[in-house]
Amino acid sequence: MPDRLTIADISLKNYKHNIAKILELVPTKVKVMAIVKANAYGHGIEHVAAAALEASASYIGIVSLGELKRIRNSGITAPTLILNYLDPASIPEAVQLDGSITVMDMAAVEAIQKAAATLSKKVNVHIKIDTGMHRAGCDPDKLLSLAQAVVDASHLELEGIFTHFAESETLDAAFTHQQLGVFNACIRTLEDKSIKPPLVHCANSAAILALPETHFTMVRPGLITYGLNPFPPEHAKHAFVTKHFKPVLSLKTQVAFIRTIEPGETVGYNRRWQAGRQSTVALLPIGYGDGYRRTPHNAGKVLVDGQYAPIIGSVAMDQTVVDITDIDGVSVGDEAILLGTQGDKIITTDNIAAAYGTINYEVVTALSDRISRHYLD
Length: 377
Fold this sequence. Notes:
- By secondary structure, the chain is of the alpha/beta class.
- It contains twelve helices and 20 strands.
- It folds into two domains: 12-233, TIM Barrel, CATH 3.20.20.10; 249-376, Lyase, Ornithine Decarboxylase, Chain A, domain 1 (Beta Barrel).
């Protein structure tokens, strides 16, 4: 039995389909690094990473020592890159767990070399280059000296170089092409000194689809592996994602309680909703403690008995109330769909993101661990 009535169904079949589709879209020798950071975008890191490898992804992408530990503790030994900055105290354990580590400066090279020498390990490192995102990464003019230091380090292997795009999903690709130009120049700088790391990667989900010149030797899909769309509706590739990639997560709960309220009565904290007529309302056991947002806007509606039921009042920590006055025959125990399909109607992650005033990434990554994940093959 699940811990609560609220469950996220995760279709590993759909996830594997999405990985397979990506492999169709890139050249045969291009590797796929499946990005499973942030608990696999809320889908469950251990199950999703295993599914990615079953679907012929060859690399796993994460962002922290904690995620590396979860990957290794689940029995996965595949190459796994920590894409972000790793604090010095975490480096020895990351080395011990055979993690590939991102370096951005000389201090990281020295710390990894020291830990690797102490443990008699050889560590694969990837240099992250800042080509215009300006969050983290090696400045291009410092790349050669950093790469040479890695090459010269006895316990390090320069396995890869990479960068990250700031806006590869937008209609105007000018800045992405500018970043790509800087990245290509960096590659040439290394090649001129006969430094040729085997893994060169910069393509996120949007770039994989819109900019094939970014594929190099490995791509790093995240969003599209979960069937989520990186593009705005007006982008030419938006419809392609909708057609060829399948949503992986659906969110459902059950009607827990039904009551009738009279005209003028109010619902929930701060009495934010007032009945204009005699109304039938249903209680759903999900709230902002589950990552189902309260403010500044809630998700707007759910599906009950194949019809849209508006959310009324404030979403509470553990409970949400919906108006079912116009839906006949609803009973306690009936299924309510918060994200997914019911009958011929659908609520998408993009629908919820639009209601929240945010992006679809946040909708799924915000789902808390107290929502039971149910994995479907």
